[in-house]
Amino acid sequence: MTGYSWSTPAVDMGAVTVNGPEGQARDHDLAGWDAIDWRACEGEVRRLRQRIFKASREQDWAKVRNLQKLMLRSRSNTLVSVRQVTQRNAGRRTAGIDGEVALTPEARAGAAVRVHQSRSSWNPRAVRRVYIPKASNRAKLRPLGIPVIMDRCHQNRVKNALEPEWEARFEPRSYGFRPGRGCHDAIAAIFNACKGPMARRVWALDADLASAFDKIDHDHLLAAIGSFPARDMIRGWLKAGVFEAGKGFAPTGEGTPQGGVISPCLLNVALHGLEEAAGVRYKTSGTRAGATRPGSPVAVRYADDVVVLCHSQEQAEHVRARLAEWLAPRGLAFNEDKTRIVRAPRAQEGEAAM
Q1: Cα separation of 122 and 156, whole Å?
Q2: By CB distance 3.0 to 4.6 Å, which of 49, 123, 326, 343 could disulfide with 164?
Q3: pLDDT in tens, 293-344
Q4: Is the pLDDT of residue 50 over 90?
Q5: Residue 220, Ramachandran bin (φ over 0: left; ψ between -120 and 50: alpha; else beta)
Q6: How many CA atoms lie within 13 A of 24 on its CB side?
Q7: What's the pLDDT score for residue 135?
């Protein structure tokens, strides 16, 4: 394989001269995959993510875009992304429509070469659709989209550029598919809003979105992403279509397939603003800046599950109507069978974490 070269500082690819000219490496250089200084690569990607996050917090959008372009060109980002997809992710042994996996150092190094060479020219491929049992009801199946290995690597590259921008913008009580956050954080947020005998938010809108991944409106999502440098590649993934055994190819006019590396991040982008739409308001000054204002509901979201804690049943009904109106242009709606307004149980201090 020709055209193999890396110029990332502190990356030792065995026989590769890391700062040498493009195209001088040879096939035997691929054996250096296991000799790469992964700590240095991951450190470079982490620092660049932090710089994107900081610039986004400062709303310096020109700097954000320049740093994102730098991330998308980064050889360290390519290496880290290929390693994540082919060595660490649970689906690394599952192939897309091309049947390709990368389970050896030579295959991973070869994939890294192809990913980096095609970083500005890759055309997304259709995903392979399979069905797996639902976690909540194993008698029912949910669709899962499996991109080809090259698409997964490119998606991880793009996610490393997109995610830190939005991490600086996402609302405080959004917990699903976010770095350093999890289900227990969402449970704790609900508990803290309900605890104690003086709790005021005693009604809950317990909502589930219907097929959220499959229904996201493409135009609305792309408009939210704005001038992100890899916007066209994201559009390509959204429009790539699916291939299902026995049914053949089908175009995708909506949704982002579950199973895509970047899909959870795109879902969070699509749902950004839900707290504001629910009427949640925070104090912006004083010693309690960041606290929820009196009379405001509290909205906690984990992926496509939402709990809005309200002061009265009437407020909960009002929030439900407002959110239904807000979700519609995003292609989304409540799952009516799983959405209800209930009296919230009063959580007691010292109760075990729910």
Answers
A1: 14
A2: 49
A3: 999 999 999 999 999 999 999 999 999 999 999 999 999 999 999 999 999 8
A4: yes
A5: alpha
A6: 10
A7: 77
**Which secondary-structure segment (H or E) carries 82?**
helix 75-83
Closest CA to 324 of 186, 208, 156: 208
Task: Give the residue carrying structure tokens 């993510």.
Answer: 49
The average pLDDT across 194-213 equals: 92
pLDDT (average), residues 61-82: 98
H, E, C per residue of 172-235: CCECCCCCCCCHHHHHHHHHHHHECCCCCCCEEEEEEECCHHHHCCHHHHHHHHCCCCCHHHHH
Take residue 9 and report the two structure tokens written for it.
């500082």
